[in-house]
């Protein structure tokens, strides 16, 4: 068997496409895999196969706020494998999952005291959608089957998440597999009204009234839930207009529709608060989470629900399973152990406060690029930002790809989707690193032209 130290050639293997990669332009990667092959990571930096040290501008994929190679996480993984490496959580339980659920419930908005574990954001979203359907059915409102998502939303790649999602490229190939009864709100991004806004735009609150239109069209008695990301992350950091989330909450409450906040990116400090729900002062009925909860080291996702939802499920015969849903690895002991360390470190190092304190630094650094050639927009909130480039004449995404490649050469691992560069740096970044990140980006954009 080939191994990394022996006769295994990662470059030749990458060139062949043996590893069919997720969300990847495979033929671009295969043509030049070396600069894109990561070999190690420490703190806020990755090392590539060609020896380049690159700053991790998106905390992996929004999931490593503590940086890489944290010694306490490494210790916890080893100790947990030695103590309890796997525990079936169907009809059984264990201390790690119990205590992590308690801890997450304690951080969640008041009255949200029940946590269901999954292994990814996609699973968390599909779980949330099932909870919503089950809840209404148990309430005698099984005709509430519709789900309302939002244009440009990203809710993972399960059939449910894909259906409520609103990114064309993720939908068109699988159109035949869409969940029935899904409709979408319009997104809130209109550059002519909000380009170069710092924080929440003042324009766009009225887009929440789309929900009223959908209620008028479908009737509330057919609608189970509305699912939105408080900040639309994957599509390139679209910040909710002032009052928008509040208005969605109002309309949902008025019509008995559940409000789901997909906090897979925003959960666990990215907004300088445990959840975006607290940052914006809007309490949903269901929160999904994943990513940062385990600092990306062991996959974990989950769903937090209100006491009312949980109580509704706890009916029927005593011996019956109330929610026929779950994953072999729901509440995995390793993920739970890592989750505890992550929350310990976030607490002991005051990382939510740190994220909040870094917010104006990132904001100033990002907006300092205003006026540079080919920049269409800059936006930010919490420890996130996006720099949107004008598409090149050669086509959408061409300039973005060139910026990504030049970024690697100049020491930045950039997250580019189309022509939008999204930023979600680690909470452990220094102020200087965030300033340097944007100074380097300036050079990168100038070099690409
Ligand atoms: C808001 C949101 N929901 C769901 C997901 C899917 O998460 P995963 O890739 O872990 O399935 C993502 C991933 O970026 C996300 O940003």
From TrEMBL:
Belongs to the class-III pyridoxal-phosphate-dependent aminotransferase family. The lineage of its organism: Bacteria, Pseudomonadati, Pseudomonadota, Alphaproteobacteria, Acetobacterales. Its cofactor is pyridoxal 5'-phosphate. Pfam families: Aminotran_3. This is Beta alanine--pyruvate transaminase. It comes from the Bacteria. Keywords: Aminotransferase, Pyridoxal phosphate, Transferase. The keyword Magnesium does not apply. InterPro entries: Aminotrans_3, Aminotrans_3_PPA_site, PyrdxlP-dep_Trfase, PyrdxlP-dep_Trfase_major, PyrdxlP-dep_Trfase_small. Coiled coil: none annotated. CDD domains: OAT_like (cd00610).
């Amino acid at each position: 068997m080939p191994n990394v130290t022996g006769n295994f050639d990662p470059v030749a293997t990458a060139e062949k496409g043996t590893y069919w990669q997720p969300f990847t332009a495979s033929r671009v990667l295969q043509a030049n895999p070396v600069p894109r092959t990561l070999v190690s990571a420490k703190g806020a930096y990755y090392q590539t196969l060609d020896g380049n040290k690159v700053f991790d501008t998106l905390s992996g994929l929004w999931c490593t706020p503590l940086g890489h190679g944290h010694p306490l996480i490494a210790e916890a993984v080893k100790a947990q494998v030695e103590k309890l490496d796997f525990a079936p959580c169907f009809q059984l339980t264990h201390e790690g999952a119990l205590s992590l659920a308690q801890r997450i419930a304690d951080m969640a908005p008041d009255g949200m005291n029940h946590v269901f574990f999954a292994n990814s954001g996609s699973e968390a979203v599909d779980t949330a959608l099932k909870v919503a359907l089950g809840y209404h059915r148990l309430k005698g409102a099984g005709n509430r089957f519709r789900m309302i998502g939002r244009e440009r939303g990203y809710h993972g790649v399960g059939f449910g998440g894909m259906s409520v999602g609103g990114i064309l490229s993720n939908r068109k190939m699988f159109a035949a597999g869409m969940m029935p009864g899904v409709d979408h709100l319009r997104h809130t991004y209109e550059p002519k009204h909000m380009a170069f806004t710092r924080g929440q735009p003042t324009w766009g609150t009225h887009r929440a009234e789309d929900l009223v239109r959908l209620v008028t069209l479908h009737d509330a008695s057919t609608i189970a839930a509305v699912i939105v990301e408080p900040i639309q992350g994957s599509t390139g950091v679209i910040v909710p207009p002032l009052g928008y989330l509040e208005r969605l909450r109002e309309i949902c409450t008025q019509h008995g529709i559940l409000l789901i906040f997909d906090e897979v990116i925003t959960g666990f400090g990215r907004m300088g608060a445990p959840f975006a729900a607290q940052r914006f002062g809007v309490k949903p009925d269901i929160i999904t989470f994943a990513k940062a909860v385990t600092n990306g080291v062991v996959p974990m996702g989950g769903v937090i629900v209100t006491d009312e939802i949980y109580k509704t499920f706890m009916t029927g015969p005593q011996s019956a399973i109330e929610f026929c849903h779950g994953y072999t690895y729901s509440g995995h002991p390793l993920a739970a152990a890592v989750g505890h360390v992550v929350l310990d470190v976030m607490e002991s190092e005051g990382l939510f406060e740190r994220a909040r304190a870094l917010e104006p630094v990132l904001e100033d650094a990002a907006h300092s690029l205003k006026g540079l050639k080919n920049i269409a927009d800059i936006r930010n909130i919490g420890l996130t930002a996006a720099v949107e480039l004008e598409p090149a004449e050669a086509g959408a995404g061409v300039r973005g790809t060139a910026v990504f490649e030049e970024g690697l050469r100049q020491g930045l691992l950039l997250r580019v989707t189309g022509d939008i560069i999204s930023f979600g740096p680690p909470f452990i970044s220094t102020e200087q690193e965030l300033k340097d990140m944007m100074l380097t980006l300036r050079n990168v954009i100038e070099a690409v032209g």
